[in-house]
TrEMBL record:
Source superkingdom: Bacteria
Protein name (Swiss-Prot/TrEMBL): Thiol peroxidase
Keyword Oxidoreductase among record annotations: yes
Any one GO MF annotation of this record: thioredoxin peroxidase activity
Amino acid sequence: MKVTRHGNEMDTVGEAPKVGDIFPTVIAYDEDDQAVTLPKNTGKKLLLSVVPSINTRVCSIETKRFNMEADNFKEVEFITVSDDSKEDQKNWCAAEGVTNLQLLHADKGDFAEITGLDVPEFGHMARMVFILDETGRVVYEELVTEISSEPDYAKLLNELKK
């Protein structure tokens, strides 16, 4: 897939899951380095936001926005995955007061390769948002082709309301 960062074109390695696909089983890690298998089988919809680095302006804005929106969607689980260290994520959550979503760190290689979001030239994952139904099927996906831009919040929040 083609993405840009400040207008510079780069390629991801592989293809991300599309609407209608069953999301692949991937592992990310919580603040205690405990493995979390995604998608979770909680019987809830899942909004899965993948961001390059939580310590950048756009990733921070996006994650804080989803943290705020989680209050409006009690029937949806909100998870953000980045390839930051658990310490960076813990410090960021404490500084920003983020408590309504789960922030997970990924082994960039496995998670990024399985989801098709690895951007070797960038050294991080591409920015993408998925909504999965209760069975783990992708019902919405948005690859943010300009990595330094935010996703279309209105469109994806409308999808969550369905």
